[in-house]
Amino acid sequence: MAPPNDPTTDPSVQDLVAARPWLEYDAIAGLVLDDVPLAGIADTVGTPTWVYSAATMRARYKALTGAMNDAGLDVHVHYAVKANDSLAALALFGGEGAGADVVSGGELLKATRAGIHPSRIVYSGVGKSQNELRLALSEDVGQINIESAEELEMLSALAAANDRTVRIALRVNPDVDAGTNDKITTGRATDKFGIAYDDAVALYAKAAAMPRIEPVGLAMHIGSQILGLAPYRQAFNRMADLVHTLRHKGLSVTTVDCGGGLGIPYRNEPAPSPAGLAAAMKGAFHNLDVRLAMEPGRWLVGPAGVLLASVVLVKQTAFEPFVVLDAAMNDLVRPAMYDAWHGIVPVSAIDAVGPARRCSVVGPVCESGDTFARSRLLPPLVPNARVAILDAGAYGAVMSSTYNARPMAAEVWVDGGRWSVIRDRQPIDALWERERLPT
Ligand code: LLP
């Protein structure tokens, strides 16, 4: 995910837009998202603003499930709420038939509030608190993915005290390097996630003997923004071996949750297709008679969102100009946090065809890390020009903060040629409304 060193190989503005059919330049209206001019949204709602294409989310969900069906697999999709937890997105995926993968009590409540039935919710995460586990029990969620022997003990005690039987899967750490950014790789033995591969059989047997605990299968997740299928194949094969071993010992295994992680092309990097992932799943599990599940986030929502921003000023320097935006790392933290590359394109069709020059695109926050792009070839931009930062639908708004006392941006939903605000821009006084001076 590190930025490529050679900006001359960057895709042009036109290439970036052409690769995303939900975006298009109209000579007069400028950049349109599903036929809705982004300039009009910026004029009305202001910037920075997140804008999401519902049609793209829906199309991607259908493409993913279609690829699974074409491979003859019946895969239960639990949308990873963490990628974009807006109620609108949750309701969309719920309406398409997806369940949810949640990692906190907050996500659990948001998913149910958006209409996803608790029986379709899988609760993952390395540190679920007692209160969160109690909530999961009282909501009777479909499955809790257990990440440690300690958590299993905790849940067993709570289940007994609350007189509830709970379906669990063991999240196993397959010790596979997914080859992605270090901060979001999760399946190596040294990562904090999952139960050590060699401990899984004993712990599964122990769980099966516990009252009120019903082990139904295994889960894995080896990382995010994975751009190769080899780590998946390796991990799936290890999971399939475990299923055999467990069954050989007379233990029942009915489900395998294959995790999320499917990467997307932010720049123009080759990315695996859902069909490729389906083939890898089929290769490992086809003769096992297990119910397969997965927890995709980024692949479903990442490309469907843009972050609209305005140019505050262009600072000329002896090196290259700094285009300073009104959006910052508090809005989209991915470049600062993971050195992530995001396409940046002008909203005006006239701006888009100007001669490309190198510039740095930055936010106003007081850190050099508040940089969206370095030495990026972009047409000249002037103050008040609008830009769209691409592929911001996943891990965008959900990771934003109010650092530098900057209110959270508005969120807009585009569907069927119309748009609506799905989250108001945070009012400035909300920044201190729950604070008080010490007595
Ligand atoms: N399931 C589990 C247990 C996870 O931990 C994750 C993501 C997913 C599913 C969804 O993975 P996806 O399909 O979205 O790759 N903030 C980072 C990504 C962190 C991913 C954490 N876990 C980023 O902006 O790249």
Descriptive notes:
With 439 residues, the chain is α/β, with parallel strands linked by helices. The protein has two domains: 7-53 and 304-431, Lyase, Ornithine Decarboxylase, Chain A, domain 1; 71-298, Alpha-Beta Barrel (TIM Barrel). The chain is built from 13 helices and 21 strands. The strands form three sheets. Strands 4, 14, 15, 16, 17, 18, 19, 20 and 21 form a nine-stranded mixed beta sheet that branches. The protein has an eight-stranded parallel barrel with strand order 5-6-7-8-9-11-12-13, surrounded by five helices. A hairpin with an 8-residue loop joins strand 17 (357-362) and strand 18 (371-378). Helix 3 runs parallel beside helix 4 and helix 6 crosses helix 7. The chain is globular, with a radius of gyration of 23 Å. The model has no long low-confidence stretch (mean pLDDT 96). The structure holds ligand LLP. Ligand LLP binds at residues 80, 82-83, 101, 124, 184, 221, 224-225, 259-262, 295-299, 334, 338, 395.
